[in-house]
Amino acid sequence: MRLIVTLEPYARKVNMSRVVEDLNLLGLDIEIDRDLSREGELIINVNSFNNIEEISRYLRNIEYICHIIELKQVLDRDSLESTLRDLVDSCGKILEEHLGPSMKFKIICKRVDKKFPLTSVEVCKTVGNMLEKLGYNVDLYNPDLYIYVEIREKVILVGWSPRHVYHKQREIVPMSIVRNVVAIVLEPLTIYEYMDLLQLSRALGIELWIIDIRGRSRRMIEDACRKLKISVPENVKVVKMNDLKAMNDVVLIVLSQYSSRGETYLRDICRELLSRRHRVGLVVGNEIDDVPLELRDNAMCEVRLGAMTGQAMRSATAIAYALGVIFNMFTIRENV
Length: 336
Fold this sequence. Notes:
36% of the residues lie in helices and 26% in strands.
């Protein structure tokens, strides 16, 4: 059988000989199709297997392998109308062979040749609509099977993969938990602190609220985003101290070096709150100022992190530390 194997971003420039060596260490009889392979993606012939699920158990031992797809057909490019017709026919044969009753599929298209007249999204919509008319069910969010289409300059690769094979299984924190945690920071003083907080918010997907004290928070956020070359994230907002005092839908927990309670208390209280779908706000000071007493009065509790050094953490570091303690309780394994 022939497989399309994609590599993680950090390994896309790796020499093919390194990949061959790692595959051979698995004891697999594998040949690389060098004519069809390209940077970050290998087409391999596996002579000892004819089942994609079985071979995937071996390939997943190589950490830098990202997606695994069975290559079913290599179509020659023709006119747009003829190409789409051939593509629908090829995809239909895959679905007829592998899609069981009540199962649903999704098309993933990669347009390597940017001169192709349709975008990747347009290809997916056009081919998907044609297949739906033939009686097959599309599900963009929770499919059982993926059809993979890769448009090259002269050919089109068409393959398929079960969802649990296509994606690598990773340990993750469910977004239902992440969305219920908010980082609340007393207005930072430097642009670098804003940049750290913005990157942390983007990487973990948590909301970031900046408590505006001096009336310059919005401008600082915009300046930090310009330096990072990003637009202002939707989950970042500016709030006033009085807004937090009047708030009753977020349970505030102050992170401070002066508290007597530590990580165990933070873990236990957050397990209880987040399991019941309450929202938790982690409140920290900035580079100079700790959380003021008026805000502590509105908090459910205070928590100290780390060893007793007498030194405060940077706000982004304290939030990241606390999130590590909290999220560790909710980690699951999923194909993502």
